[in-house]
Amino acid sequence: MESFSVLSDGNVKSGEEDWLTAVEPLLKVLSLTIIGLVLAHPKLQVLTKTTFRLLSKLVFVLFLPCLIFTQLGQSITLENFNLWWFIPVNVIISTAVGCILGYLVAIICRPPPEFFRFTIIMTAFGNTGNLPLAIVGSVCHSRKHPFGPNCQTNGVSYVSFAQWVAVILVYTLVYHMMEPPLEYYEIVEEGDEIEEVNANDLSRPLLVEAEWPGMEDKETEHCKTPLIARVFTSISNISQSSIPDVGSLQEGGPNSPKSIMCLAEPKVVRRIRIVAEQTPIQHILQPPTVASLLAIIIGMVPHLKSFVFDYDAPLSFITDSFSILAGAAVPFVLLILGGMLAEGPLESKLGIRTVIGISVARLLILPLIGIGITLLAGKMNFLVPGDLMYRFVILLQYTTPSAILLGAIASLRGYAVSEASALLFWQHVFAVFSLSLYIIIYYNLVLPYV
What we know:
Strand content: under 5%
Oligomer: single chain
Largest sheet: none
Mean pLDDT: 77
């Protein structure tokens, strides 16, 4: 009940003020998003798609890493590292619960068979990065928030601390779940020309580069093929010559040491190893992830931290410069989101029933389960005592729409790009209402009792 006493001291008022306090941050987010939508509108074209892609790259390689480094580095310590363990664990929990919900949606709504796994992963994997950072920044700029004087620093630190887990999930679970289904894999004969993908192709949806620009550059030889299905199954009615040979994925000839070693391996172990070797886990070291790791390393070593982050530190001029750049991250993230929504939904074969099913499961049902998990975690003393922002970030992990990054993965794998674009568009439209509803619930019914 300690957290309730914090709220009852006047931070969150009763009646109409409760509603205004909870809705005000979302109104700010919505306003900036609408500005981006207007600037990108085809009739005005104040900012072109090329400009939005440039903004995405700036956010990804400069503004967002600066925000993460300056805020996480200031607040992280060895003690906090041990206290915050539940935040990255909760990313895994929320994704696992989302997978179960997605499976139920796929069973009930019966999407086209080729989109069964797509339905599961689009329900499971939420936006744990840019959108939570934008919401936290907006909440902390409100006058009557209940999160104390270190609202911005703590909020950004908690969101950033979870990002490394989310990135690992993207390049393992999400990458393989978005694999083109073997039964519907487009066969290209050996003599046919394969059209080269132009990274600057303006016909591609903005969502492909809205969160992680340059994802297309990470394309590998087998990223657009049903590798796992090819390794683990054999379907007689599909030409095996049309799909990369499993043996070709191994180095060396039949007499090489690696081949001799494989002969002694159990078949299942061999297949798992082949899939693991083709998993692009090396790409997790993106600028935001590197910024998180550097901030954690420097923040946990007191001498390094005093050299970089203290008020009179020798390198304080660098961190001050980073802080100035960090201020541009949240506004640009929301402008880019508006530019993405201005494109509208692309034509989709997913079906309206499945779109509604995924949206209801992700935006309405999963947050209710998240409330239960957060209350249980509080009862089991897994949460930082008395820290409302810690609880709010954990709840947000269950509340946000599907990650925009899923559109980039869809493009990378050459699978369900238009379906991902349409679904992300409608989810973000619906999220305006669901986020408003649940932030009101969190402020008035959940945070006082967690």
